[in-house]
Amino acid sequence: MDFRYLWIKCFGFKTYPFSASPAGTKVHPFDFKLHSTGLPADVGKFRIFNRLKMSPLRSIYFILMATKINILLPFGPLAMLLHHFTQSNGWVFFLSLLGITALAERLGYTTEQLAMYTGPTVGGLLNATFGNATEMIISIYALKIGMRRVVQQSLLGSILSNLLLVLGFSFFAGGIVHKRIQHFSKAAALVNSGLLLMAVMGIMFPAVLHFTHTEIQFGKSELALSRFSSCVMLVAYGSYLFFQLKTPHDMYIPVNDEGRDNREDDLSEEDAPELTYWEAVLWLAILTLWISVLSGYLVDAIKGASDSWNLPVSFIGVILLPIVGNAAEHASAIMFATKDKLDIALGVAIGSCTQISMFVIPFCVVVGWIMGRPMDLNIQLFETATLFITVLVVAFMLQDGKANYFKGLMLVLCYLILAASFFVHVDHPSNAE
């Protein structure tokens, strides 16, 4: 038994200490591809065992060290330290934003890896679900301590940023990269637009009832209407999920300029997944949990950051917080759009809005009902108007099933107008909590 045999038997792969790799072979520190050695069969068993044992290191490399944006990851723990040992809420808020940005980008990458195994429909739903898990956890926490307006404004901001900013940048990036009109499923876009309009109806009526002073019982009628509408919206969202998963996929596959299904392009251009199915699932759970923990510090620092930076709390809650909170959807939607997978990009951006408006917001109303917290759908007149106009603009953009960079630019510019509006908007003292 020579030295090389002992080395392979111990470490399970064919590399030799203090020697170069075989000619023409590129050895990567996390590349555990087995090479033929002509040695006894039991050596192959040892190598397979070691490859399985070292597989988590491979996934750790791809998640934590493969991109330059991971240099922002240490800012998350640093924000926690500043929170516990200083009173610099402005810095805690800023560093938390940076930390969540890196985590959100990795969440988008992991979801893309999982989408390679599940397909575009389930992949889009998974991305929307994991992207909004943070908002749901923060909302329940804020609702528990009585911060109703923070819940309403942050969820509203998530819808607005996804509809205008995320979708706009996706259209813009896809149009610039491919220099042509991109196509997406008109049927899926119409279904999502209908759900968003239904959500606007459910959110608008309690506000209209309140501001027209036509309630039978002041303060109680709008709360009762909000709870009833929330239950109806939850049923509608459950039906939508069943429809999405059970409807034949041919209804949602657009045809490209040459008359071929985009599935053919996806199959020819699909990259090999870098994570296994269960590695992707595990990292999705880990990253979501870590984002949720860091988001708690972010929310706690909002009021202090508002005082330090002299910015309205509504601007931070509706504009700044959702931009970072939706960084996962933002990064992954743009990534899919640049790869000419616009249906997945829409599933991420519009699917996230649909889930927030039809599930997360009604769910918070029901949870508040159970907890004894009067959470309603009356998000005030100014916010309701911005939501209504935004949904109409996006529904108009999606009706033809085509996307280009000019549509994306218009959506982004609309978001700038929206951001400027909230910059000069201050909550009425009777509404602030």
Automatic annotation (TrEMBL):
InterPro entries: CaH_exchang (IPR004713), CAX-like (IPR004798), NaCa_Exmemb (IPR004837), NCX_ion-bd_dom_sf (IPR044880). Keywords: Antiport, Calcium, Calcium transport, Ion transport, Membrane, Transmembrane, Transmembrane helix, Transport, Vacuole. Residues 91-245, 280-422 form the Sodium/calcium exchanger membrane region domain. The chain crosses the membrane at residues 60-85, 121-143, 155-177, 189-212, 224-243, 280-299, 311-337, 344-371, 377-398, 405-426. One of its GO terms (cellular component) is plant-type vacuole membrane. NCBIfam families: caca2, cax. Belongs to the Ca(2+):cation antiporter (CaCA) (TC 2.A.19) family. Cation/proton exchanger (CAX) subfamily. This is Vacuolar cation/proton exchanger. It comes from Erythroxylum novogranatense. The lineage of its organism: Eukaryota, Viridiplantae, Streptophyta, Embryophyta, Tracheophyta.
